[in-house]
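Interim report, section 4.2 (structural modelling).
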Amino acid sequence: MEKGGLGLEITELRLGLLPGSCGPSLVDKNDKKRVFSEIAEDKNSTTEEKSTQTKSQVVGWPPVCSYRKRNSFQEKDHLKKESKMYVKVSMDGAPFLRKIDLSMHKGYSDLALALEELFDCFGISEALKDADNSEQVPIYEDKDGDWMLVGDVPWEMFIESCKRLRIMKRSEAAKGFGLQLIKGFPKGFIKDVTK
Amino acid sequence: MNYFPDEVLEHVFDFVASHRDRNAVSLVCRLWHRVERLSRQRVFVGNCYALSPEILIARFPGLKSLTLKGKPHFADFNLVPHDWGGYVQPWIEALSNSRIGLEELRLKRMVVSDESLELLSRSLANFKSLVLVSCEGFTTVGLAAIAANCRFLRELDLQENEIDDHSGHWLSCFPDSCTSLISLNFACLKGEINLAALERLVARSPNLRSLRLNRAVPLETLQNILMRAPQLVDLGTGSYIHDPDSETYNKLKHTILKCKSIRNLSGFLEVAPRCLPAIYPICLNLTSLNLSYAAGIHGSELVKLIRRCAKLQRLWILDCIGDKGLEVVASTCKELQELRVFPSDVLGVGHAAVTENGLVAISAGCPKLHSLLYFCQQMTNAALIVVAKNCPNFIRFRLCILEPTKPDPVTMQPLDDGFGAIVQSCKHLRRLSLSGLLTDRVFLYIGMYAEQLEMLSVAFAGDSDKGMLYVLNGCKKLRKLEIRDCPYGDKALLTDVGKYETMRSLWMSSCEVTLGGCKTLAKEMPRLNVEIINEHDQMEIGSEEQRVEKMYLYRTLVGPRKDAPEFVWTL
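Predicted structure of the assembly:
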């Protein structure tokens, strides 16, 4: 597992997702100015989008007015069509923070993989599976300003309330946050304490 | 006629209200023209580029209410590039420099800037009513100016606009002295709202009849508002989510009982279906119900609601209602006049939940139906023939089968006969939108029978130029024709060029017309603006045979417009 030294990937400049590639439903002010390049970009869209758009490559069809297209929410897609949910992610030891769009992920494991990629660190998904042995503790700040352990609440509830993320070193958890530790593990992680 | 003093004529003309009738009156003789124009208060301009503000102001010095439309209809479907035009600024500048005491401005598909709104608010002292439909280019800063400066404001109605929300403070800009509001609609605003300011505003507006809230207004506030405004006739809820066991919800149930005047209901942009029973008591009185943004109401909850609305005349709904749900509508809403069924899956790739069966049921149960917009999975000729027989009173018939060029699934035939039955039976038909597999034959029928047709929308239809020619020759009252993805070329375009001066506009995109054809037309008809939209720089000047991707032509008194962007060529 690579620790410490940052891989080149982290210093690589990466653009955020192309406005059009999240589907025509996620349109903010800039997108509506680029409506036509957005349609052109549809042809280069991600596979995720292609699978939902196999039929509607026709511009302006069905003839639903663009306001209605942008503002029609389907119950099940409600969360997907919300505006992007970018939150800051900090990792102890990293020189700068990153941002991640929570609405682009389907669940905790998906998020964990994304975080690992961002910081080139392995262990976050381990943390969720097997808290005892992992080096990193993913926590988040919720709407009330409290720092919470990632993974306790259902995913939908989590992305609604998460304001920022932090990947904390286990050693920090012990001293900095004053978490009560029972047998060396933060309270929230108690599962099987037969060790 | 010459023996009556002008005042008598004017008094008689007072009874002539419709724009068309007044236009006709003004053509009788010079005297009538003069009396009519001096007494005219309401003017409708269907295409803002057909004339100039100066012409309007010179002709109608008594103007009080102006309606303006900007972009072509297909701009709604992203077929017109941003920055195409339709700016209201020159109109507001001209009006503010004139002596016209404009009181009402109604705009559709226009670009409105904050600067325009501020100028309007400062220069028109008597301004009372602003209605913006499908407009863009302004922010809540412009709204704040309207709120702050229009001392006699009665109506602020924002429908389906793209508004940049900078803050919710515009509501607080209504001064305490503003007590004249009758209608306030901000449902399309996306941002937060100063709830306390909203409640205070409602409290000091005893004449408030129409209020449509946005998503940011929670149920608690709705409750408070309804307490203070039980006289509301038109209500659009914001967020309609709460715990049905809560005190607030309980209060709402009691408050709604006092709102006996509500006839129009809309909103439910977010909804907890278990809270719907609170509105049951007002359902019986409703004449208009718009649930087309209420994706959270479906299935049995939706049907339960509809069953209580026996007096509905207008219903806008999502297709998740299904054919079965439409059968409930048909058996419950005997007074129904207008029905719109929108697709819940707006990407259009899924399956609409309604078919020809739902429409047939409606036509059988609702004989007063005259306006229809129906997005569906499929349609058959047999169904359309039955619908035509059941409902001969259609004025507007817009059918959209989600899959382009889909034939009758039972017979695999084109839908020519079905639409033919509609135009033959519905002698008052003014607006028609076609879809599905269609040959030239349907246009033959339209040309033959659709004598009152004013607006026709065609997509992916027809086999040859003949189709378009049948329509241009036959439909004497045609005003707007919009065509996309059809095989019509220069022959269709150029056979009867005089026709276009009798129409407001023609749109053709992804057809077979060439640059040469359009140039010829522009040359022969100097009083038309023939505009080519040349996006992505595809076209080269000089090559006459190349196909024109998008053409929009319209009659005008003032020649090529001066605000056309680079990608619009006026030939």
